């Protein structure tokens, strides 16, 4: 006769390795340089994920892998945007003077 369900659940949990929720991200970051080179070489992200997943080097799904690629590989380092220095030869734009309504229109403006 088979074991009761409670015992089978307890054995499965006992035999399961302890994993932290962020262990997938840690594994991704450890392979980040290899992944970045593969992306730069033009390999599809899904092929990169499938290869690493099949080798057992990562244990995250494709969706999470793709999010990590977009977040950690495809973004450039945060740098301040380059703002050209204004030259003294460039005239500064004038501030608008406003609108004044003339209730008596000029005939040449109407034609």
Report on the architecture of this protein.
The chain has 111 residues and is mostly helical. It has a domain of 60 residues. 50% of the residues lie in helices and 0% in strands. It contains six helices and no strands. Helix 4 packs across helix 5. It starts with a helix and ends with a helix.
Topology readout:
Elements: H1 5-15, H2 23-30, H3 32-40, H4 45-55, H5 62-73, H6 107-110
Helix pairs in contact: 4-5
Total DSSP helices:
6
Radius of gyration: 31 Å
Extended strand count: 0
Main sheet, how many strands, which sense, barrel?
Answer: none
Give helix and strand order, one letter per element, not per position: HHHHHH
The shape, in one word, is elongated
Strand content: under 5%
Structural class by SSE content = mainly alpha
Average pLDDT rating: 82
Q: Low-confidence parts, pLDDT < 50 over ≥5 residues?
A: none
Q: What is the distance, rounded to the nearest whole angstrom, between the alpha carbons of the first and last residues?
A: 103 Å
Q: How much helical structure, as a percent, in the residues?
A: 40-55%
């Amino acid at each position: 006769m088979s074991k009761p369900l409670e015992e089978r659940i307890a054995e499965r949990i006992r035999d399961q390795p302890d994993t932290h929720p962020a262990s997938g991200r840690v594994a991704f970051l450890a392979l980040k340089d290899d992944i970045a080179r593969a992306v730069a070489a033009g390999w599809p992200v899904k092929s990169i994920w499938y290869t690493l997943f099949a080798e057992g080097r990562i244990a995250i799904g494709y969706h999470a892998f793709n999010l990590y690629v977009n977040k950690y590989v495809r973004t450039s380092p945060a740098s301040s945007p380059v703002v050209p220095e204004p030259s003294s030869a460039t005239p500064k734009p004038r501030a608008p003077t406003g609108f004044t309504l003339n209730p008596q229109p000029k005939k040449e403006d109407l034609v």
